[in-house]
Amino acid sequence: MVDDLTDALARTVRVARAEQNLSLVGLAERSGVSRAMIARIERSDVQPTAALLARLSAGLGLTLSELIVRAESEGSRLLRAVDQQVWRDPETGYSRRALSPGTAAALELVDVSLPPGASVHYPADAFRFIDQQIWVTAGTLDFTEGADHHTLEAGDCLQLGEAADCTFANSGSSDCRYLVALAKTSRA
């Protein structure tokens, strides 16, 4: 199912790639996503998964939030609740809502809901230029960061370490909700 946000993401990836004078091959090399898949995403032929978008955003030097916010907003400093579109991963049902306006601020807030039994994996490259904290607001989050495993309950907050492959998983029987606060850093 292709929707307005999928179309907007397609345009955003295409524009970000063009702004950096990257060919499909160049972005494929940077992101580890095949040239054919990038072309399909840019044509809105497929709705990309969270993991795929994370790899593309890292290849473009953007956070996943930046990529989605660029697709969702027009650069206002105010993003009203009714205008905060929800993006849902077609593979896992994971949903994310960018709370931060689409300005070029260094701080971003993201509201995430992870359904029971869902697991989302992100490669280390998705975290290479951000500092990130996770604050669980409901349910239990099983979070694996490289070799470290954390079970986070409602109210727990975790500061992520150095960039590592990460997995967000919900082994509980109800949705896990958490807030992600991230700040871009100068390290790349």
With helices defined by DSSP (H or I, 4 residues minimum), what is the helix count? 5
Quote the distance from N terminus to C terminus: 35 Å
Shape assignment = globular
Give, in order, the helices and strands: HHHHHEEEEEEEEEE
Strand order of the largest sheet: 1-2-3-10-5-8
Percent of residues in helices comes to 25-40%
Salient structural properties:
single chain; 188 residues; alpha+beta; 6-stranded antiparallel β-sheet; 4-stranded antiparallel β-sheet; 5 helices; 30% strand; globular
Structure description:
The protein is built from five helices and ten strands, in the order H-H-H-H-H-E-E-E-E-E-E-E-E-E-E. The protein has helices at residues 4-19, 24-31, 35-42, 50-59, 64-72, and strands spanning 86-88, 95-98, 107-114, 119-122, 130-138, 140-145, 148-153, 157-159, 166-169, 176-184. The strands form two sheets. It has a six-stranded antiparallel sheet, covered by helices on one side. The N and C termini lie far apart (35 Å). The mean pLDDT is 87.
Short description:
This protein has 188 residues and is an alpha+beta fold. The chain has 5 helices and 10 strands; from the N terminus they run H-H-H-H-H-E-E-E-E-E-E-E-E-E-E.
Spell out the blueprint of helices and strands:
Elements: H1 4-19, H2 24-31, H3 35-42, H4 50-59, H5 64-72, E1 86-88, E2 95-98, E3 107-114, E4 119-122, E5 130-138, E6 140-145, E7 148-153, E8 157-159, E9 166-169, E10 176-184
Antiparallel strand pairs: 1-2, 2-3, 3-10, 4-9, 5-8, 5-10, 6-7, 6-9
Helix pairs in contact: 1-5, 2-3, 2-4
